[in-house]
Design brief:
Keywords: Cell membrane, Membrane, Transmembrane, Transmembrane helix, Transport. Belongs to the binding-protein-dependent transport system permease family. FecCD subfamily. It is a multi-pass membrane protein. By secondary structure, the protein is an all-alpha fold. Helix content is about 75%, strand content about 5%. Helix 3 runs antiparallel to helix 11 and helix 5 runs antiparallel to helix 11. The longest helix is centred in the N-terminal third of the chain and has 36 residues. It starts with a strand and ends with a helix. The relative contact order is 0.17.
Length: about 350
């Protein structure tokens, strides 16, 4: 019996994934759905999972329907979308750069988006609508990546050079963000600090869910279609050129997809750290190195991590609502140290 399953998306495109990957996706989808339902019922007013399901199907109590549909469902959807976007962004970066420590927050993409958001608070916060905040964050992500890409260019972009410059730029973006934060009024500092920590508290359908959803629904299928290019990039530039890959063009395209996903997620959820680092590593442990499996599994793991972090943020210190980024950092920082130790001789 074959260990692989073929999925066809048209006359010219198909995906061959292992049975292990297929079942990993099924199991993770079920776990994410269960956690989604349980987490939706947790809050100051506890709602049983069965009652949450009734609300989803339009037969729940009116009070439960208002709480779930207005307050909690947008938050859960944003957690799934932002977590999966950050995870896929990190998976692309790790494969393209061939560095297990690469992630949007470590090489400066998240830092650029954060600086864009803090600049919005500092220069435009009292002049224009808050709905422009995601635009400024996404612009910040793209501008910062453009600077990193230009500075890393020398007869093409070297992955190692990009990582080193990205780490330096990330430190610079963080310093500028903190400088703006402490030089402004206290209300600015509170808003900026919450954003820099990462929180999905108070999200809404129009301003947040419908802003983030198109980025994820459009870019993730494109990333999956380019999974073979990520596999080729992992083999190294010489081999990639030898098999006929347009290395610089594909590297730039993959980078733009990664930046767009990370920038959109940060624009809505703030600078939630380490999901883009952890999720791809866990995915590779589950399904192996092939990116046709790593990308969807990373997306599900990223969604699961942020759902768990948000659930902990709302329930462990009730009635306080701690930013979810505190919990992802608490898990991610030791994980990063472990990766540094494991790769100390490479």
């Amino acid at each position: 019996m074959s260990k692989y399953t073929t999925f066809r998306t048209g006359k010219t495109a198909s995906f061959l994934i292992s049975k292990k990957t297929f079942w990993s996706i099924i199991v993770l989808t079920v776990i994410t759905a269960v956690l989604f339902i349980i987490s939706t019922g947790v809050g100051s007013v506890r709602i049983q999972p069965l009652d949450v399901i009734k609300v989803f199907f339009g037969s729940g109590e009116q009070t439960h329907s208002i709480i779930v549909q207005t307050l909690r469902l947008p938050r859960m959807i944003v957690a799934v979308l932002a977590g999966s976007a950050l995870a896929v962004s990190g998976a692309i970066l790790q494969g393209m750069i061939r560095n297990p420590l690469a992630s949007p927050d470590i090489i400066g993409i998240t830092g650029g988006a954060t600086l864009g958001a803090v600049s919005f608070f500092f220069f435009l916060g009292d002049r224009v609508s808050i709905q422009w905040l995601p635009v400024c964050a996404i612009i910040g992500a793209f501008v910062s990546t453009f600077l990193i890409y230009v500075l890393a260019w020398k007869h093409g972009v070297s992955p190692l050079r990009m990582v080193m410059i990205g780490i330096g730029m990330a430190a610079a973006y963080s310093s500028i963000s903190y400088m703006l934060m402490i030089s402004g009024p206290i209300i600015l500092a509170n808003k900026a600090l919450t954003f820099m920590t990462g929180s999905i508290y108070g999200v809404s359908w129009v301003k947040d869910v419908w802003t983030l959803m198109p980025w994820v629904l459009i870019l993730m299928p494109i990333a999956l279609l380019l999974a073979r290019e990520v596999n080729v990039q992992e083999l190294g530039q010489e081999i990639a050129v030898g098999v006929g890959s347009a290395v610089q063009r594909n590297r730039f395209l993959l980078l733009m997809i990664s930046v767009a996903l990370a920038g959109a997620a940060v624009a809505i959820g703030g600078a939630i750290s380490f999901i883009g680092l952890m999720a791809p590593h866990i995915a590779r442990k589950l399904v192996g190195p092939a990116f046709g499996g790593v990308l969807p599994v990373s997306a599900l793991i990223g969604a699961l991590i942020l759902l768990l972090a948000d659930l902990a943020a709302r329930s462990l210190f009730s009635p306080l609502d701690i930013p979810a980024g505190v919990f992802t950092a608490a898990i991610g920082a030791p994980f990063f140290i472990y990766l540094l130790y494991r790769n100390r001789q490479t």
